[in-house]
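User: Here's a chain of 154 residues. Predict its fold as tokens.
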Amino acid sequence: MTKKITAIAIIAAVIIALAIAGWLLSRSGSGSSGSAPTSLAIPSATPIPDSPEAKEAKAFLTEIYGGQAEQAYQNETSAAFKSQFSVADFQSAIASDAISGVSAVDLTASTTADASDTVFAGTMTATDGQRYNVEVDLVQENGAWAVDGIRTKY
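Assistant: Prediction complete.
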């Protein structure tokens, strides 16, 4: 009986460990559009210089909250992003944020998995003065940067 309970406990521990490992891998892998972060704690830091990928992240945020969500979706999101979210779903999600415009985007952190995958974090200031923590995932497709995920936190 004790051996049976020990075997069950070991199996349960292995299953839990595999589940945690899978979750961690999904958070660190490229193309993480569908996974939501547990925290959007944005470090206080010097803004990131305007690299091509940082410019893409800023332009995307400004466009989607400036009434150009469909255009930004069609022209600036990755193929993987489009395969997960329809343009209607994307527009609905943006509309539900109730942000009527962006006056500033300050990116203060970036994480790069490799030369073709990066995540920017920072703050976005809406035209009404409200500030939001944001993360934008980018991947390189056909030599250009494309948005692969976005998260905002109020």
